[in-house]
Specification:
The chain has 414 residues and is α/β, with parallel strands linked by helices. The protein has three domains: 64 residues, Roll (Archaeosine Trna-guanine Transglycosylase, Chain: A, domain 4), CATH 2.30.130; 113 residues, RNA methyltransferase domain (HRMD) like (Transcription Regulator spoIIAA), CATH 3.30.750.80; 208 residues, Rossmann fold (3-Layer(aba) Sandwich). It contains eleven helices and 20 strands. It is globular, with a radius of gyration of 23 Å. Bound molecules: S-adenosyl-L-homocysteine.
């Protein structure tokens, strides 16, 4: 251990690390005491040489060190095995209903910056976004095999972040065999998921708990929390539906119809098949369109006429409109526009279930944007639920980047 190269931090930079944030930006580094190769393990000390932790170094990245531990550690197979087991135990404590598919490791949320592991029934999908983790890939695969004995381990390392680490994209089968799409089930609805070519690692696991919560509102709308009680007449619009997560759960809640929109023709084709697989095709309809265009077309009326609201529930779950702080104003215009139009299309008493997955737009700012749209459309909203990312994407408040998905359900009072 004594021989590890040492990164000394500039004065004032130690507190964030002591507080538990794992990123040391290159601008925080005072100097390196001896040469370190990119991907090497280094020890981190403050400018007075006080030990702060051990981490993985990369001179090419803006994040020069990703701290793994406040202790002096070895990064070997045992290290990965115990970190992954600890992460799994968190899921077992906080994910209700023992789902077969969930995120096992969520990078910084589990003190493994640069590593994501998703479990889709008996298949694992790995996503590596840092050079240090890339170097440890075979150790990680071995640890995963020991813990899960999976049928296959797939790699989907295609994040933009890899570019900043000097890494090319990498995908393929790391272990075992995968011979086609995988069937998963979330609260009783089954989905066929493309783990090799689908969005993210195949599914939006971070919304898994919210599918059920939003669908429950449809039952409550009839004055009873029991999910068996149906909502016979309701019409639901699921915008940005992807594989139909929200829409299909709503359809199962017994509504009259669910219309799903996504600009990806592949997503719409898959959502359609998922509706059939679950015996819900009759009440579902689909359109491969740009949601902005669709909403615009459906809220366009001649001067002095009003839009006729037709929907009992509208779900808005767009992609992140901004990955950077500087693009937040543009993103807010986008969020406001879809809310303005959605509010015009909702019947009084109807429900807006809306989500924002941009880390840079926090819940307060997001709600302000919805309220600004409500003001412009002269609607009064009652907030009936607040949502967050599923518990398999744990939030570490000391690492603000771990908190990104927020959502609300609003009832249109009038
Ligand atoms: N609600 C989904 C996840 C949505 S992710 C779920 O729970 O699984 C965002 C989706 O929006 C993606 O499927 C993407 O194809 C789609 N998308 C992105 N921009 C769009 C646009 N302008 N119009 C329609 N769909 C869009």
């Amino acid at each position: 251990m004594q021989s590890l190269p040492t990164i000394l931090l500039k004065p004032g930079e130690a507190d964030r690390i002591i507080a538990g944030h794992p990123w040391i930006y290159s601008g925080s580094v005072l100097r390196l005491t001896q040469p370190a190769a990119d991907g090497d393990l280094v020890q981190v000390k403050d400018h007075r040489q006080r030990f702060l932790g051990t981490g993985l170094y990369n001179s090419k990245s803006r994040i020069a060190v990703r701290v793994l531990s406040p202790d002096r550690i070895e990064v070997d197979r045992t290290f990965f095995e115990s970190r992954i087991r600890a992460a799994l135990a968190v899921r077992q404590r906080y994910l209700s209903g023992s789902p077969g598919s969930f995120r096992v490791v969520n990078a910084e949320s589990d003190f493994l910056s640069g590593l994501i592991v998703d479990k889709y029934e008996d298949i694992l999908v790995l996503q590596i976004s840092s050079l240090g983790m890339e170097r440890s890939k075979s150790l990680i695969v071995e640890a995963l095999q020991t813990i899960f004995s999976p049928r296959a381990i797939i790699e989907r390392s295609e994040t933009g972040a890899r570019k900043f680490e000097g890494l090319p994209d990498a995908n393929g089968v790391l272990a075992g065999n995968l011979d086609g799409p995988v069937q998963i089930s979330t609260s009783g609805i089954s989905f066929e998921v493309d783990l090799i070519g689908g969005q993210k690692t195949g599914f939006y696991l971070d919304q898994q708990v919210n599918y059920r919560l939003v669908a429950e509102l449809l039952s409550r709308a009839q004055g009873c929390a029991d999910e068996v009680v149906r909502t016979p007449g309701a019409q639901v619009l699921d915008c940005f539906c992807f594989l139909g997560g929200f829409g299909l759960h709503a359809a199962r809640a017994g509504v009259a119809g669910v219309h799903m929109l996504d600009q990806s023709a592949d997503a719409i084709a898959a959502a359609k098949q998922n509706a059939e697989r679950n015996g819900l095709a009759e009440k579902c309809s689909f359109e491969a369109v740009n949601v902005f265009d669709w909403l615009k077309a459906h809220t366009r009326v001649p001067p002095h006429e009003k839009v006729v609201p037709q929907w009992d529930m509208i779900i808005l779950d767009p992609p992140s409109f901004t990955r950077t702080r500087s693009a937040v104003p543009d993103a807010l215009r986008g969020y406001k526009e879809i809310h303005l139009r959605a509010l015009k299309l909702l019947k009084p008493g109807g429900t807006l279930a809306t989500f924002c997955c941009s880390h840079h737009v926090d819940a307060g700012l997001f709600q302000d944007t919805v309220l600004s749209a409500a003001f412009d459309t002269r609607r009064i909203l009652r907030r009936v639920a607040a949502y967050a990312q599923s518990p398999d994407h744990p939030i570490i408040p000391m690492i603000p980047e771990t908190e990104y998905l927020k959502g609300f359900a609003f009832e249109v009072v009038r």
